[in-house]
Design brief:
Blueprint lengths: L11 E2 L2 E2 L20 H11 L3 H7 L1 E3 L11 H8 L5 E3 L6 H16 L8 E4 L18 H7 L2 H17 L4 E2 L24 H16 L6 E5 L14 E3 L3 H8 L1 H8 L4 E4 L2 E3 L12 H11 L5 E3 L6 H4 L4 H11 L4 E3 L3 H17 L4 H17 L10 H8 L2 H14 L1 E5 L13 E6 L6 H13 L4 E6 L5 H11 L4 E6 L7 H11 L5 E5 L14 E4 L11 H11 L25
Parallel strand pairs: 3-12, 4-5, 5-6, 7-9, 8-10, 9-11, 14-15, 14-16, 16-17, 17-18
Antiparallel strand pairs: 1-2, 13-18
Helix pairs in contact: 1-14, 2-13, 4-15, 5-16, 6-7, 6-16, 7-9, 12-13, 16-20, 17-20, 18-19
Length: 585
């Protein structure tokens, strides 16, 4: 197959040779119409051969289904070959070789069935390809990247993520998160945001878009027009924000404008009601938001993709089929159908029925199909849809990638408070107690950190794991262990509000008179609940689902034992520490 990098010469799509294109293709003598580009001519030729069913297929992105070998199953094949899905989103975790084989299988199914178009294969890779590829490189969360205050760090993270994603068969990443996290109690964005300052989020967003797209992976600014001031998790319910139009335009929209100016190729919608624009419908279903604001006012010409339509904010209120039709009519180009198989089929069928009945116009469908095809052409998928599984293993395991991650992590770790507690001296052979909670029923977080401390202190470490909300008995046991320790590390974690037991654990260990450093694993606001702790470090490393980012934990342990911290708070801690706080040794 010929690559379409310059759109010059004949173009092979599937088994059909399209008309030869020259540099002057589309020109016509005496025509008042503007000349069509070679790419537009190719898109017209493809669409002329597509059935309505095939066009609808390009507008739906189902999540894939797996067999016991973690490979795509028969249901997934039917979605691609029978329902003509033009894109997919992949969940689950596999090693690089298996991921490459998985994505190749998806592309083979698409190639073996009309219209033979390559697939856009997407995933959430917010903290690196590691999010779904087990041997890939884990990077700090976006708030950690924000704490570096360095656009180069943001771009470097995106570059490596794109290289590893592309090697394993992904061509579309749902990152960066362009939400400005102005609500400390936000239950779903939190450390996924670069921070609370619009200027910081805007610059970091633009840098990451460059890093992703210049290295062959579609970037996605999300969640338009902003999910940073919500108090409801849209996975669980329908959120609404009540700020005025001025706040929307000065605080939440600028990162998306920066994304558009940086050439972002896709923007994801938020399942959030923006009262300043539309008081009735969430952005995903609102023509006022998607067409009026994003297309007409902000001038975005790229592809609009919905957030997952199985999230309760949409699914419980409207249902898969009705919501899909509403979203496309509102201006969305691709509907992310992430529910069960029946809900996915309902999405395809509802869109097909709406096109037949006239509820969805042919013009509207064609607009979106053109954008989807344009994206596939831009990213050269027609001539290069498969990847080499053996090469993928080598790409994701490059030492240089791991060092980039470690360097960004070191620059992100923020020493917020230090009353002559840190650094601990690794050569002193003092006994360190690591005491803290399990997270979401997992002890791996604390065990991993204790193991890292063990390496630094030559075996002089004890660990004690409490429940997520430590009980009185657990706290008493931790205090008893502290009596034999020389110094204490207390990791804490909160996805929104810190459990009272964790705060009490820190306070009681502080009361022993031993040197205590608390380390927030998630949001950096934990210190509000134990302000008298002797030392405090923010890592921004765990989000509300509990996904581990050990790169950040190792960097935090290194800082505790003497490595110079580099981070500055990308958010303010009300009443205690302003934005930009960050100490050094």
């Amino acid at each position: 197959m010929k690559k379409m990098s310059a759109f010059i010469g004949s173009v092979l799509i599937g088994s059909t040779l399209l008309l030869p294109l020259s540099a002057s293709a589309g020109q016509s003598n005496g025509s008042p119409e503007p000349a069509k580009s070679p790419k537009d001519k190719v898109i017209e030729q493809i669409m002329a051969k597509m059935s309505d069913k095939e066009k609808i297929g390009q507008l739906v992105m189902p999540s894939t289904h797996d067999n016991n070998s973690k490979m795509p199953n028969e249901d997934t094949r039917k979605l691609i070959q029978n329902y003509k899905a033009g894109s997919v989103i992949v969940y689950g975790a596999r090693d690089a070789r298996t991921t490459a084989q998985y994505n190749n299988q998806l592309q083979h199914w698409a190639a073996d069935s009309s219209p033979k178009l390559p697939l856009l294969i997407s995933a959430d890779l917010e903290f690196g390809t590691k999010q779904h590829v087990t041997d890939a490189t884990p990077f700090p969360r976006q708030m950690g990247i924000g704490a570096t205050q360095q656009e180069k760090a943001a771009e470097d993270v995106a570059k490596v993520t794109a290289i590893e994603a592309k090697a394993t068969g992904f061509n579309w990443n749902y990152s960066p998160v362009a939400d400005v996290n102005t609500n400390p109690a936000n239950p779903v964005i939190g450390v996924r945001s670069f921070g609370e300052k619009t200027s910081l989020v805007s610059s970091m967003t633009a840098a990451q878009i460059k890093g992703y797209q210049e290295n062959g992976v579609v970037a996605t600014a999300k969640h338009f027009p902003g999910h940073g001031d919500t108090s409801v998790d849209s996975h669980l319910g329908l959120a609404a924000v009540t700020y005025d139009r001025e706040t929307l335009e000065t605080v939440h929209l600028p990162p998306f404008k920066a994304a558009i100016d940086a050439g972002v190729d896709s923007i994801m919608t938020a399942h959030v009601i923006i009262n300043a624009i539309d008081k009735e419908l969430p952005a995903t279903l609102s023509k006022k938001v998607l067409t009026g604001l994003l297309r007409n006012e902000m001038g975005f010409k790229g592809l609009i993709v919905t957030d997952a339509m199985s999230m309760h904010a949409i699914a419980k209120e409207w249902g898969a089929g009705q919501a899909a039709v509403m979203a496309v009519n509102a201006g969305a180009d691709i509907v992310m159908a992430t529910g069960n198989l029946d809900e996915q089929l309902e999405t395809f069928d509802a869109l097909s029925d709406a096109l037949k009945s006239g509820q969805l116009s042919e013009k509207r469908v064609n607009e979106s199909v053109k954008r989807v095809l344009a994206l596939k052409i831009k990213y050269k998928l027609f001539g290069d849809r498969y990847v080499n599984p053996e090469k993928a293993v080598n790409v994701v395991n490059q030492p240089a990638h791991k060092e980039t991650a470690a360097e960004v992590a070191r620059k992100s770790i923020t020493l917020v408070k230090n009353e002559n507690v840190l650094p601990f001296n690794p050569a002193a052979k003092k006994l360190t107690l690591v005491a803290g909670p399990e997270i979401y029923g997992s002890t791996n977080f604390l065990n991993n950190i204790a193991s890292m401390v063990d390496e630094k202190s030559a075996g002089n470490v004890k660990s004690f794991i409490t429940s997520e909300d430590a009980t009185i008995a657990e706290i008493q046991q931790a205090v008893k262990l502290a009596e034999q320790a020389d110094q204490i590390i207390v990791p804490t974690f909160s996805p929104s509000e810190l459990p009272a037991g964790q705060a009490k654990l820190v306070k009681e260990l502080q009361n022993t008179g031993k040197p205590v450093v608390a380390v927030s694993l998630g949001l950096p606001y934990d210190i509000k609940q134990y302000p008298d702790v002797g030392a405090y470090i923010a890592t921004y490393s765990v989000e509300r689902w509990g996904s581990p980012v050990p790169t950040s934990w190792k960097a935090a342990v290194d800082v505790i034992f003497g490595t110079q911290p580099g981070g500055k708070l990308p958010v303010s801690i009300e009443g205690l520490y302003p934005y930009g706080t960050g100490l050094n040794y």
